[in-house]
Amino acid sequence: MRPRRVSVRRGGSVKQPGVLYVVATPIGNLEDMTFRAVRVLREADWIAAEDTRRTRALLAHFGVAGKRLVSYREQNREKAGAELICRLAEGQSVALVSDAGTPGISDPGEHLVRLAVASGIPVVPVPGANAAVAALSASGLSTSRFLFVGFLPRRGRKLAESLAELASVPATLVFFEAPHRLEETLRRMLETFGDRRIAVARELTKLHEQFFRGTIREALDELAKRPPQGEYVLVVEGAKSFGDDGPAARKSAGAEGRRSADDGRGLAERVLELERELGDRKRALKQAAEEFGVSRREAYAARLMARGGLQKATHGETGNDEGASD
């Protein structure tokens, strides 16, 4: 069923509704603002902004003056949303912006978009900067399938339940996190997911942008060297590429993991894949062994078999390779 389009009858004529434009704004670097976004903001009848002072500064930077702004944030979204829908129904156009990035993505703008769609009002995206996609694109992890989670529950049972649900998702996971919760979140991820690969993006597009790429345990070690500051996006390897659903699943699914290790193919492929990604054979053997629940010596033997080197392994040469030591 198609949504009913709102129309207003004035003086015997039917007035078509206006358009709600969902306008992305920079997440740090002002050069990421698009020409189209500036034009839409200049031409819109109203601009709905999460923080009107911040948006006025952005408009001033791009020479957009004399605009009517209305505050639209989590605390007033019901009342402000109803007023904006009325203006749209009267044929006026509204540009929706957030403090940074794409409105509606982990953002109160989602509510206004839902109202507009339910009312049959046209909604037009004006794409641009997005922290989640930016971090994912540069993470070095799989981008073929991903799940945007946003912010996790802050603590306690809800946090544990959320992570447990996500542990078996066969897709790359993308999170937002605040600096004061970063360490606790990483520790809980390590407990629930195991030592998966992760990319930690900090201050994206800003002067002090940083990426850390490694495992969750290595990210915690890195975090211990300096206090966290700024805004973070966490991109975490999914369950399918990791090979299981975390430490608990690894123990309960031992028979299946052993079967993969015995035939050698899955284990060997994982070792070689990790060697290419990490550039370090010892780390690759260690991580693959942990994922499959086997010793590093078994992982090394599987690697040699894949490369046609099993005969050397049976003559004891693995004992001379420090990468195969337990």
TrEMBL record:
PANTHER family xrefs: RIBOSOMAL RNA SMALL SUBUNIT METHYLTRANSFERASE I (PTHR46111)
Keywords, ordered alphabetically: Cytoplasm, Methyltransferase, rRNA processing, S-adenosyl-L-methionine, Transferase
InterPro entries with a match to the protein in the record: 4pyrrol_Mease, 4pyrrol_Methylase_sf, 4pyrrole_Mease_sub1, 4pyrrole_Mease_sub2, rRNA_ssu_MeTfrase_I, SAM_MeTrfase_RsmI_CS
Main location (coarse class): cytoplasm
Enzyme Commission code: 2.1.1.198
Gene that this polypeptide is encoded by: rsmI
Stated name of the protein: Ribosomal RNA small subunit methyltransferase I
GO MF, one annotated term: rRNA (cytosine-2'-O-)-methyltransferase activity
Function: Catalyzes the 2'-O-methylation of the ribose of cytidine 1402 (C1402) in 16S rRNA.
Domain Tetrapyrrole methylase: 20-219
Subcellular location: Cytoplasm
Taxonomic classification: Bacteria, Bacillati, Bacillota, Bacilli, Bacillales
HAMAP family assigned to the protein according to its UniProt record, in alphabetical order: 16SrRNA_methyltr_I (MF_01877)
NCBIfam families membership: 16S rRNA (cytidine(1402)-2'-O)-methyltransferase (TIGR00096)
Organism of this sequence: Candidatus Reconcilbacillus cellulovorans
Family per similarity comment: Belongs to the methyltransferase superfamily. RsmI family.
UniProt region (Disordered), positions on chain: 245-264
Entry-linked Pfam families: TP_methylase
CDD domains registered for this protein in UniProt: RsmI
Cellular component GO terms held in the UniProt record: cytoplasm
Reactions this protein catalyses: cytidine(1402) in 16S rRNA + S-adenosyl-L-methionine = 2'-O-methylcytidine(1402) in 16S rRNA + S-adenosyl-L-homocysteine + H(+)
